[in-house]
Amino acid sequence: MKRPGEYLLHPWLILRAQNLLGALFVVAAWSKVVDPPGFAKALWAYDLFPAWSLLPLALMVPWLEFLCGTLLALGIWVRATTSWIVLLLLGFILALSINLVRHHPVDCGCFSTAAVAHTPAERMRDMRLDILRDLGMLALAALILIAAQGKSSTPSRLGPGGSHA
Amino acid sequence: MRPPLATLALQMAALLVGACAVAWTFNHFASATRRLEGSRPVVAPQLQPRPVPVAPEGVPPHTPGAKAIQPPRNLAKPQPMVADAGPNQREISSQEALELFDKGVPFLDARRSADYLEGHIRGAWRLPVWEAELDERLTRFDATGLPLKSPVVLYCSGGDCQDSHLLASRLMALGYRNLLIYRDGYPDWVAKGRSTAQGEQP
Q1: Taking CB atoms and an 8 Å cutoff, what residues of chain B touch A54?
Q2: Are B140 and B56 in contact (CB under 8 A)?
Q3: What is the helix, strand, coil percentage profile of chain A, to 5?
Q4: A-side interface with B, Cβ within 8 Å?
Q5: Is the C or the N end of chain B the one with fewer CB within 10 Å?
Q6: Distance from first CA to last CA of chain A, Å, rounded?
Q7: Integer angstrom CA distances of residue A129 from A84, B65, B73
Q8: How many CA atoms lie within 13 A of A18 on its CB side?
Q9: Do B35 and A37 lie within an 8 Å CB cutoff?
Q10: Which of A34, A55, A79 sits opposite B41 (nearest CB)?
Q11: B78 SS3 class
Q12: Which residue is closest to A152 within chain B, CA to CA?
């Protein structure tokens, strides 16, 4: 009888998880890719980043998200793309948590850079939901990484250097 | 054969370099309203010395008697990212904003260009504080030769919008000393049914 962990790491499920996480990252990245000033403004509102880092971050992070999301959905460089996604998610969660703790309501800027007319209380509620959503995505990414790790540790049928991912 | 961790590190580095390259290329060819200036932070409060522009295209009609082009005024000391509401700037009410509008005081719109094109206070200058062309537009505004002590009204979207405050820091760095921030901003102006315009024209 199979253990629950084996069901979770079933190749069919892992493939769907890759597609879903990849697609989510592509969708999230797109609004920022097409509007770097909007994302720079969203980052500035977090009040965490020094002024000199705003432009490079606002330019580079959305494209990193987009690239990782696309390649992950296509099953290319799964470990590398998922590792970046884990790092990005940890960064987002940390940034939101710091502002939540210090009662500094911000628009997440995760899926849209458009300014939203929300009250501070609504923003704080949204930030909690955003953290929960990011934690869910982090769990998905961890699952993919564990599956990819298992795959890379088993001997390849193609012989040395035969692994695609 | 390369160890798995080295392969992972190489692939991650390649992704980072690839993202940077695509971002730089995309930004280079993006329109002015969608571009970030890569040479300095958007919110750097002081203007760098720059060459005098050739011609002040599209100088709004709200500044009567615009003089010939002058070099940007002496650049002031660096200011905090959001300047304190000191003697050089203060927030004004909706009624004060209307009185100043009737007197012909220049209004500066600090919102994004897309918002400006959708609708703005009639005669307002477009000075989108987050966009690449801000410096050029500030230079054009400065080139009108408006006295530094003259009142200037700045606005954005009201509420917790900080764009007009950021713009105020940039103007203070240029030497302007009578900056009036219309606290409730454009939504309030529209709600009160006052004069607005749409599109590129101020």
Answers
A1: 41-43
A2: yes
A3: 75, 0, 25
A4: 33-38, 40-41, 44-45, 51-55, 58-60, 62-64, 66-68, 71, 77, 79-81, 83-84, 115, 117, 120, 152, 160-161
A5: N
A6: 30
A7: 22, 54, 48
A8: 28
A9: yes
A10: A55
A11: coil
A12: B4
Q: Tokens 């869910």 map to which residue?
A: A136
Nearest beta carbon to residue A37 from set B8, B36, B161: B36
pLDDT in tens, B86-142: 578 899 999 999 999 999 999 999 999 999 999 999 999 999 999 988 988 999 999
Helices within A47-158 (DSSP H only): 51-74, 78-101, 120-153
Which residue in the block uniquely carries the two structure tokens 């998905």?
A: A140
pTM of the model as a whole: 0.77
**A110-160: pLDDT as tens digits:** 888 777 777 888 889 999 999 999 999 999 999 999 998 877 665 544 444
The token duo for A164 is 């695609």
Tokens of A65: 């998200």
- Chain A closest CA to B14's CA: distance in Å? 9
Cα–Cα separations (whole angstroms), residue A17 to A30, A89, B13? 20, 16, 24
CA distance B39 to B37: 6
